[in-house]
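Re: beginner question about structure tokens

> Can someone show what the tokenized structure looks like for a real chain? I only ever see the sequence side.

Sure, here's an example I had lying around. Input first:
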Amino acid sequence: MKLDMKYTVIIPHYNSYELLQRLLSSIPVRDDIQVVVVDDHSEQFCSEWIDCLATNVTFYQLSTKGYAGGARNLGLSVAEGRYILFADSDDMFTDDSFDVFDESIKSGSDLILFKSTSFVEGSCAVGVRDKYRNRRLLKGPVEAALGAVSPWAKLILKTLLDEHRVYFSEVPAANDVVFSIKLACVASKIEVVQKVVYKVSQGEYSLSSDFGLDKALSRLREQRKRILLVKRYKPIPIFKYCLLHSMFISFMVNSERLKSGVYDEEFLAYRRELGSIIVGIMKVSYFIYKNIFIRLGYRGVF
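And the corresponding structure tokens:
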């Protein structure tokens, strides 16, 4: 690790060269900022484009398909900065984000969370992808870190990741869940800065890409690991955590929709991890939720 390298920005990339260029232009070219772009086997590889990258940008490509988690892990393996930042290739940083980072690291915290905003791609409309995360940041530092799972808009001390072997899951969906939850559990000093440093792109929502069995199973399995981590490290009481962060209703809907024995077996294990009291509360909530949707005419959801 270079002693003068302050930040490493790690960017997983897949089929979005033009948007990636927009993100890169939002990162200042400084001697103390290393930018690592890791491509996950894009369908249209553009070697000429790589030659145009700024001097502080290094481009890698995974040897085999690793999804965003695999790309981020490769980025971590070559990171030289004292602090790690993650960004998605279709998002961007705000104009003053690195000024905010420079000021924030003076606190000596090993995990610092910031606010984000969102926009609808291709329009002037304001998005909603930041709303849930920003509400989580109003909690105490540990609960904020446990709730704001997305890896962007966070400054992470590299030695913290190395010491506790914190990595991403290399799975089709929810690759950042275990990473962020373990990070929240092992960080010794967490700080929340109520300043917007990151802009999240909100594209057209695709039901077909989100509702497949592979991604549904991936989300369910990663959520099971999430509960096991909280049980192991005990950052907050497990009952409170499960009650606040359970995805029982979403998984129950998937169970009814997918009709998959493999999924149902995983869902049963997830319910055991939650415990009978939480499952009972969630079942009542699900019944109410389902009947509200049916009365409103959304029968196709169930």
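Each token stands for a local structural state, so reading them left to right follows the chain. The chain has two domains: 7-202, 207-301.
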